[in-house]
């Protein structure tokens, strides 16, 4: 009785604390493990799939377009101006595969969520964009948003000004936000390496050219010091949302807008992103997002966007925009994600999920700890009884001697 | 397993089982709502595996502890018996000692164990490895047994160790115990019934715990 299983007992006695410690460590690691957002982002929602991929790979991106206030005469120069610049209406996501080169983000190390590249001029974004939505895709998204957004490719362009990676309940995805602005106020995201000695001719020349220079200075100086050489820009460039070569404040529509956009993008790749976030351009730590899925699948996800708490106007805008983000873009049955149209608040979902995971982990760990404590108590009692047994037997044997 | 032991076990493990079920449910809810589930499943499986090991270890420790509690140390010269679960028992007649041990085994609660008096020196040790019984259905399941004829012993296995000779003799039933125990103790067998009655022996038998002395109910 006393020797039976003694080896196993010692083994288990020594191993049990280690096992419990490993279990607790696993619990602590689970949140990190379950929410990796590597730069690949097939939106599969699978940790193992994501984790096995090269984090420097190009990523799929959901493009979201924000409507700006009507009559805007100048492009925002900073965050405060941006807050009052947008109306809060957003299109649904236009998801393009392998559309963004996230390799630069690898230098931050670790997971690639919660990162952000913010550049109101759009240059930094466009530089890393491998694909951009076509005019047709933009027009379709604008037309099918919950709140219809007017889009005229002749007079408007999209300035992609922020790229973010976010995560929710183990999913991660990247999205790029753009501002749908008149071309005359849009900044040139790509500085011209070659100064143009000749001012770009106005495609719609004034029949009565004014010999005098325009006495009215441009109310918003073009951030691009170099005028755009004109249509037909670098094909490697992701997009030239709004070349504004004419210093004349008179609107001069781009004769060939977005020619360099990757126009061979399969329209079927337009799918609805289940969520967006406030396009506030703040540091990105308040990102709200929803999990993604393979574009090939049809899933229902709790969606949309919660406004960034750090931005008042943009938060309101994003809140109203979020209601439209769950709407699926029609026309591509196999690639359409059916989201929830109501703004359920991904922050709340994420918080609830985290709370449930923490509570569950605490309960499981508590159960394990309680059993370990009980085992320790029984071990101590057994040890005392064993000592008592030995003592009494020795007494009996002592009498015999 | 005695009724008190079952109650103790239920009190200890039912809340833990409920907590575990609720925790697993909470853990799996996000997965049910569409979150990644592969890690969740791994965590749950790992946790169940750890629980299986811990519960096995717990069962083994409890079994070992129960065996110690169910060991009787008999001082035949002074007609005293000590059990960790019941304390010191004086018996005037060895013929009824087996019944007393049976009652102690039935009522074993697994609570704090008693300490033997300093002058207690056993001559033999009765180790019980397996013990099973059936209560009289008329007896309240939660009431302690005070009479041996309130239960029917269906299994009683163990070893008697004669400390004077260091020889061990195994027994596998109450009859074996009597056959082995009585000659060892110099007692005479009192019968061949599976369920023995303590009868008038209760009149004079006293159970002495470490802090109290109480007389068993006299059987009329």
Output the helix-strand order of chain B: HHEEEHEEEHHEE
Report how far apart the termini of chain B are: 29 Å
Quote the beta fraction of chain A: 5-15%
Structural class of chain B: alpha+beta
Order of helices and strands of chain A: HHEHEEEHHEEEHEH
Name the shape of chain A in a single word: rod-shaped
Are there runs of chain A of 5+ residues with pLDDT below 50, and where? Answer: 29-56, 192-201, 203-344
Shape of chain B: elongated
For the largest interface, the chains and their residue counts are: A-B, 64 and 59 residues
Radius of gyration of chain A: 30 Å
The profile of the biggest β sheet of chain A is: 6 strands, mixed
- Head-to-tail CA distance between termini of chain A: 25 Å
Radius of gyration of chain B: 22 Å
Strand order of the largest sheet of chain B: 6-5-4-1-2-3-7-8
How many β-strand stretches of chain A? 8
Low-confidence stretches of chain B: 188-220
In words, what does this structure look like?
The complex is a heterodimer of chains A (401) and B (220). Chain A is of the alpha/beta class and 401 residues long. Chain A folds into two domains: 6-33 and 354-400; 47-344, no CATH class. Chain A contains seven helices and eight strands; from the N terminus they run ααβαβββααβββαβα. In chain A, strands 1, 2, 3, 4, 5 and 6 form a six-stranded mixed beta sheet that branches. In chain A, α1 runs antiparallel to α7. The two termini of chain A are 25 Å apart. The model of chain A is unreliable at 29-56, 192-201 and 203-344 (pLDDT under 50). Chain B is built from five helices and eight strands, in the order ααβββαβββααββ. At the A-B interface, α1, β7 and α7 of A face α1, α2 and β4 of B.
């Amino acid at each position: 009785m006393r020797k039976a299983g003694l080896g196993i007992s010692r083994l288990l006695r020594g191993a049990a604390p280690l096992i419990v410690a490993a279990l607790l460590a696993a619990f602590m690691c689970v949140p990190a493990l379950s929410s990796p957002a590597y730069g690949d982002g097939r939106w599969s929602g699978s940790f193992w799939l994501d984790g096995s991929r090269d984090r420097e790979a190009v990523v799929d991106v959901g493009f979201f377009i924000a409507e700006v206030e009507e009559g805007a005469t100048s492009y925002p120069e900073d965050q405060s101006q941006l807050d009052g610049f947008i109306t809060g209406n957003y299109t649904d996501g236009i998801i393009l595969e392998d559309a963004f080169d996230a390799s630069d983000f690898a230098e931050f190390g670790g997971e690639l969520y919660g990162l952000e590249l913010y550049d109101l001029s759009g240059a930094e974004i466009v530089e890393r964009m491998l694909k951009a939505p076509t005019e047709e895709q933009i027009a379709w998204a604008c037309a099918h948003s919950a709140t219809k957004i007017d889009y005229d490719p002749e007079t408007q362009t999209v300035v992609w000004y922020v790229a973010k990676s976010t995560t929710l309940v183990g999913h991660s995805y990247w999205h790029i936000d753009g501002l749908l602005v008149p071309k005359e106020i849009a900044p040139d995201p790509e500085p011209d390496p070659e100064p143009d000695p000749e001012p770009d001719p106005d495609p719609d020349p004034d029949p009565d050219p004014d010999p005098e220079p325009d006495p009215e200075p441009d109310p918003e100086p073009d951030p691009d010091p170099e005028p755009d050489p004109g249509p037909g820009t670098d094909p490697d460039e992701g997009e030239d949302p709004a070349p504004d070569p004419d210093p004349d404040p008179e609107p001069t529509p781009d004769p060939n807008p977005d020619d360099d956009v990757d126009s061979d993008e399969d329209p079927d790749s337009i799918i609805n992103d289940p969520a967006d976030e406030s396009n506030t351009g703040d540091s990105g730590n308040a990102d709200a997002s929803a999990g993604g899925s393979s574009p090939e699948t049809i899933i229902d996800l709790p969606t949309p966007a919660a406004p960034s708490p750090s931005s008042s106007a943009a938060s309101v805008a994003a809140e109203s925009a979020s209601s439209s983000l769950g709407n699926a873009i029609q026309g591509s049955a196999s690639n359409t994600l059916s989201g929830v149209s109501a703004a359920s608040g991904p922050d709340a979902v994420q918080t609830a999920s985290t709370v449930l995971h923490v509570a569950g982990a605490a309960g499981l760990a508590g159960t394990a700890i309680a059993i370990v404590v009980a085992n320790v108590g029984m071990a101590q009692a057994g040890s005392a009884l064993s000592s008592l047994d030995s003592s009494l037997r020795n007494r009996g044997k002592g009498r015999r001697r | 397993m005695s009724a008190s032991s079952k109650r103790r076990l239920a009190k200890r493990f039912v809340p833990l089982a409920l907590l575990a079920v609720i925790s697993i449910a909470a853990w799996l809810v996000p997965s049910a709502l569409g979150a990644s589930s592969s890690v969740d499943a791994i965590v749950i499986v790992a946790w169940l595996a750890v629980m299986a090991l811990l519960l096995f270890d717990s069962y083994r420790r409890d079994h070992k502890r129960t065996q110690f509690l169910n060991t009787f140390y008999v001082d035949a010269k002074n007609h005293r018996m000590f059990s960790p679960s019941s304390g010191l028992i004086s018996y005037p007649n060895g013929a009824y000692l087996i019944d007393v041990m049976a009652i102690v085994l039935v009522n074993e609660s697994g609570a704090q164990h008693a300490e033997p008096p300093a002058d207690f020196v056993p001559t033999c040790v009765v180790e019980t490895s397996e013990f099973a019984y059936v209560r009289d259905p008329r007896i309240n399941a939660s009431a302690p047994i005070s009479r041996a004829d309130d239960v029917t012993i269906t299994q009683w296995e163990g070893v008697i160790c004669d400390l004077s000779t260091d020889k061990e003799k195994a027994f596998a039933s109450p009859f074996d115990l009597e056959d082995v125990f009585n000659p060892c103790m110099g007692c005479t067998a009192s019968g061949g019934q599976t369920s023995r009655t303590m009868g008038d022996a209760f009149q004079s038998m006293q159970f002495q715990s470490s802090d109290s002395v109480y007389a068993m109910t006299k059987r009329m």
